[in-house]
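Project outcomes to date are best conveyed with an example. Our students and postdoctoral researchers have been running inverse folding experiments weekly, and each run begins with a structure described purely in tokens. The record below, which covers 378 residues, was selected by the lab manager from last quarter's runs and is presented without edits.
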């Protein structure tokens, strides 16, 4: 039992000690906080400063500036470009720079909390880190310097004169640029679609050479401009030319084709009508010829019959003797013409032509006979 009590009392003693230690630690925190404030007020804590800008992009040959701002007291500041220490600044105002292209000054007179560092006529060698270090508890800050180079550009060939709707090509050459510039085209101050041009680049030492080719169809007079820009350029560099478009001469090909087609069609129609007309004329001629031959044969047959009758001595039954004024009914035949009885000799007129029959009768004058008139009617 005693052993058990002694163990309990020991554990209680440990618990009391723990509680006392915890109370002491919580009570000591305000004291530590005050100590920290006093140390910071006396400059025992590390100092702070700012470097601006942390990224600087400038053109080759220009000047660039960096500002370092400190809070509190400091003694020595150094500036390093790349791997070389170039400038030293003392809080007392003494500044040392080597070479002369590097310099430093206080931002304002009598104020040592700000230092301005300048690099004059920068080159590609200065590209890279720029480090500002303040001795003591301030440490260092690093900025990045980018040096760009703006070269030249021009459009090959100058002004161009082409026919309307002709394909035209412009070539813009850019030399000694770093880095590769952004190339764009405009016509009549309007941006050209990037699908109409193509840009290629290649290295040439520490810079680049670029070539941009623009192709489009000429429609009207156009002011064509090639532009190149870099981040460090306030405005793009440009080169421009003029495109003069001459109206396209009248194309007679379509008209000639239409005329030839119409003419060929008209000739074909005329040829068809000519063939039909000739065929009809030929057919009509053939029919007329056959009719004429038929009529001639018929007349020939009729003439043959008449001639055969005359050769047989047929007498014309109708005649009127000269000087006779009346005819006895007994002397009229069936045809109503006078016939002399017992007369065997007749005298016909000199010549009697019948246009209806085409027959000719020839009379022979014989003084011993009396003259009579003969009429033949068909």
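After processing, the design step wrote out the following sequence:
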């Amino acid at each position: 039992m005693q052993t058990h009590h002694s163990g309990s009392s020991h554990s209680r003693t440990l618990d009391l000690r723990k509680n006392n230690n915890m109370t002491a630690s919580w009570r000591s925190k305000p004291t530590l906080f005050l100590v920290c404030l006093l140390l910071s007020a006396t400059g025992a804590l590390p100092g702070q400063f700012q470097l601006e800008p942390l990224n600087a992009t400038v053109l080759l040959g220009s000047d660039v500036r960096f500002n370092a701002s400190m809070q509190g007291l400091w003694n020595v500041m150094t500036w390093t470009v790349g791997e070389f220490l170039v400038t030293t600044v003392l809080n007392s105002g003494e500044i040392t720079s080597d070479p002369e292209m590097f310099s430093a000054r206080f931002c304002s007179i009598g104020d040592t909390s700000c230092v301005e560092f300048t690099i004059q006529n920068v080159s590609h060698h200065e590209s890279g880190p720029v480090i500002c270090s303040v001795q003591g508890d301030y440490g260092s800050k690093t900025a990045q310097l980018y040096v760009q180079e703006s070269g030249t550009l021009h459009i090959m060939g100058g002004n161009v004169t082409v026919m309307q709707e002709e394909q035209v090509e412009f070539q813009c050459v850019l030399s000694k640029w770093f880095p590769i510039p952004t190339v764009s085209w405009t016509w009549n101050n309007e941006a050209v679609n990037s699908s109409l041009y193509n840009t290629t680049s290649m290295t040439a030492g520490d810079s680049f050479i670029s070539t941009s080719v623009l192709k489009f169809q000429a429609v009207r007079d156009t002011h064509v401009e090639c532009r190149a820009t870099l981040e460090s350029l306030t405005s793009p560099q440009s080169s421009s030319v003029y495109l003069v478009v001459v109206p396209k001469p009248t194309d007679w090909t379509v008209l000639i084709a239409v005329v030839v087609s119409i003419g060929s069609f008209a000739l074909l129609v005329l040829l068809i009508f000519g063939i039909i007309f000739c065929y009809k004329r030929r057919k009509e001629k053939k029919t007329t010829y056959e009719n004429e031959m038929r009529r001639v044969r018929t007349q020939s047959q009729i003439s043959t019959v008449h001639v055969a009758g005359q050769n047989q001595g047929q007498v014309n039954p109708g005649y009127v003797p000269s000087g006779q004024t009346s005819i006895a009914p007994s002397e009229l035949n069936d045809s109503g013409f006078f016939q002399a009885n017992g007369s065997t000799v007749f005298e016909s007129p000199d010549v009697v032509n019948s246009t209806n029959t085409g027959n000719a009768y020839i009379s022979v004058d014989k003084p011993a006979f009396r003259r009579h008139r003969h009429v033949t009617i068909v």
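Helices lie at 2-41, 253-311. The two ends are 196 Å apart (CA to CA). The training component of this project remains on track.
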